[in-house]
Amino acid sequence: MGAVIEELTSFLHPDQVSQNETALDQHSHDESYHSVFPPFVVVYPNKTTEVQAIVKAACQHSIPIIPYGLGTSLEGHVIPYDSGITIDFSLMDTIIEVRNEDFLVKVQPGVTRSRLNKELKKHGLFFSVDPGADATLGGMAATNASGTTSVKYGIMRDQVRSLEVVTPSGEIIHTGNLAQKSSSGYNLNGLYVGSEGTLGCITELTLKVYGIPEYSMAARASFPTITDAVDAVVSILQAGIPIARVELVDEESIRQVNSFHHRTYREKPTLFLEFHGNEPGLRHDIDFTKEIVSDHLCEEMYFEEDHTAMVQLWEARHNLAYAYVHGNPGRKLMVTDVCVPISSLAGAIQHARERLNFHQLNGGILGHVGDGNYHALLMIDMEKEGELSRAELFNEEIVTYAINCGGTCTGEHGVGKGKMKYQELEHGEATQVMRQIKKAIDPKGIMNPNKLITM
Amino acid sequence: MGAVIEELTSFLHPDQVSQNETALDQHSHDESYHSVFPPFVVVYPNKTTEVQAIVKAACQHSIPIIPYGLGTSLEGHVIPYDSGITIDFSLMDTIIEVRNEDFLVKVQPGVTRSRLNKELKKHGLFFSVDPGADATLGGMAATNASGTTSVKYGIMRDQVRSLEVVTPSGEIIHTGNLAQKSSSGYNLNGLYVGSEGTLGCITELTLKVYGIPEYSMAARASFPTITDAVDAVVSILQAGIPIARVELVDEESIRQVNSFHHRTYREKPTLFLEFHGNEPGLRHDIDFTKEIVSDHLCEEMYFEEDHTAMVQLWEARHNLAYAYVHGNPGRKLMVTDVCVPISSLAGAIQHARERLNFHQLNGGILGHVGDGNYHALLMIDMEKEGELSRAELFNEEIVTYAINCGGTCTGEHGVGKGKMKYQELEHGEATQVMRQIKKAIDPKGIMNPNKLITM
């Protein structure tokens, strides 16, 4: 691989090419329990044409390329198990254009969602997709991220209007346009979102944004059992209330929140809710919601209308994984991520709790229950004999249960390395079509190899 | 091709295989001006395994396959220019399952949207996608149809949760699952929606449905000029009013409505609007909308709260193309279909009107202006020297204008035969990736050949 370094330094500044141990180490892992492996070299392009030149060099030398945002993924997506060139997009972090009238924004892939939202606020706009981590938008598109607001605003794939992509052969393409809808050509936009760097490198994104709602209100509602809380969510959805967020946080996780954030939330299964709209409509929705949760034995419902209190509520929810990590030093994080049809949600969560107990695993259950997406969050002692394998078995049981009831092995974290083994089970014969696509677009198999689909 | 008839009749009932002249003629055209061409044979499968056997036979004999719903397309999608086997899905018209709790419905491809909505009404549900024609759901998925409600509920691609597809090699695959969201594998769902039968035959659809809104109200608002009407729409969207429908109908088209439906609507550029929500929220939205349209010189705003009156209003809008056809016997229909960023909409429509006048073409302008999608509707006298070529030139000018301002050559009708010539202009290098996908999935090129993308 030595020859490629020479080639890379022929068009990149020496500062943009690193084999420094710290850099290699930083790019050898994500935020999960997956085993680490360093890249051969890390490069930091400044612009699309540099990415193009890097990909062309890699293509010529048949060396793997691993696109890297901030490394917040949870399924080993960015770990270079086959070595190769990690492209770190941190220098490509410009917010190129805000098109107020069109509700669009054009950004480079290294921009994080919080930075984008800070900028958009000046225009009375916001970007809706909201995973826990402050990920880069390139990474979020690559994994088709979602989060707390997708029940109302949709997932990452719904927000991507167009991507600039450097293909595995080094061509620069655009997958969409600026129009609200199109029936022209194959839907490359939707194909590239969620392709996890296996079909090319995203070098620019055009994203849909929204006007900050006229009025919003958040609430916490606690219930005697998880099943009561989940049943309340199903009833809220059935009633057609256009809820903006509805998150389940179990008893154990509320304890972590209280300890990490010094809160005094009631330590019971809790829903965190948010409503967006105009004031009279929203008050009507909230009255209806109060009736519904009360029918489901809600013990306490607490409203936050004040902006700071709302921010604090969601901060608590977003930092939950970090609260667990903080409260369990030395352990590694495993987060299950299935998504099931709403009608199967209560049963799925009950099954997950039973299997956690059976395997004597400590973990919290939480998630974006309005979508049928929940997570079991485990802190694994990697030194403790059998703990990792019990956790992996538990994850497999959760996945099998979800697929059997018509769901998916991953609602929002993506496949990466961790969920590859479930692709045949979930997609059956369709995996063959996926392989045909991968082979056609990346015949040399250089783009993030051995991720998403076995070839 | 004689051998294939023998093979087809070996597993299909003689009634399911037709070379009858009427059947061939019926399948030789769509509802547009595109030139006609008959298939070699028409087959009427009853079930997926029959479709599979038909595709396998066609694959073995390298004979083209053309999937056919009801022939309501407007860009020649279903016309068998290379001859071959037309698969008519009219016998596969079962509504398989309504999953109330999951807001999902499973149907065969031959079910029409009006029949589905009739069934869903019993469950308090509705299917949102609403093009003018009473198309089949298989056809609507194949072309990624949309229509009047997409400004609120999204387009066909947003409603498809999973498809059962017979691939060009005769495998049966499922492109998705029953969960609300997924980040597992490549997004075959989104790829097959809008692939226009070029990557396989859709044999079953799982679709998202919605609860019938608590309250809805429709309105007509007339303006002195089209530009005033379009500017009013832009202001309504900017204000964040979650409007369910907002349709522009120009003066000429209002005249067609009045004559066809015996109405007395004011013959001025008009917006047809609809609002869905809870009553207090909706009244607030309507008050705000009234202020906005009045700022844009609205001459008259007329509300319809009564269900029958609302149905009549939308019936008038939906039947507009038929009103034109009825009012112009012997002529053929051409409908332009560009979609532009909202900020370019007023200019685009003004340009279209100028070019219509320049080319001395009679036509109406109307469309789903909340999406930036508008149509110029022309009735072409095919006998009149130069009229078709002037109309084609006009269409090209409209498309070029739209692409130059970041839009698309087709917002909802699809590419078919008619928009193939604009694919390179719109997608540039990305057409090469589209070709790679087509070649990989359909190496023999038997699925609806010479549609969507030139190979």
From TrEMBL, chains A, B:
SUPFAM superfamilies on file: FAD-binding/transporter-associated domain-like, FAD-linked oxidases, C-terminal domain
UniProt entry keywords in alphabetical sequence: FAD, Flavoprotein, Oxidoreductase, Transit peptide
Boundaries of every FAD-binding PCMH-type domain copy: 35-212
Pfam families in alphabetical order: FAD-oxidase_C (PF02913), FAD_binding_4 (PF01565)
Cofactor: FAD
Cited InterPro entries: FAD-bd_oxidored_4_C, FAD-bd_PCMH, FAD-bd_PCMH-like_sf, FAD-bd_PCMH_sub2, FAD-linked_Oxase-like_C, Oxid_FAD_bind_N, Vanillyl_alc_oxidase_C-sub2
The EC number(s) this enzyme carries: 1.1.2.4
Keyword field contains Flavoprotein: yes
Top-rank taxon, per record: Bacteria
PANTHER family: D-LACTATE DEHYDROGENASE, D-LACTATE DEHYDROGENASE, MITOCHONDRIAL-RELATED
Family that this chain belongs to: Belongs to the FAD-binding oxidoreductase/transferase type 4 family.
Record-given protein name: D-lactate dehydrogenase (cytochrome)
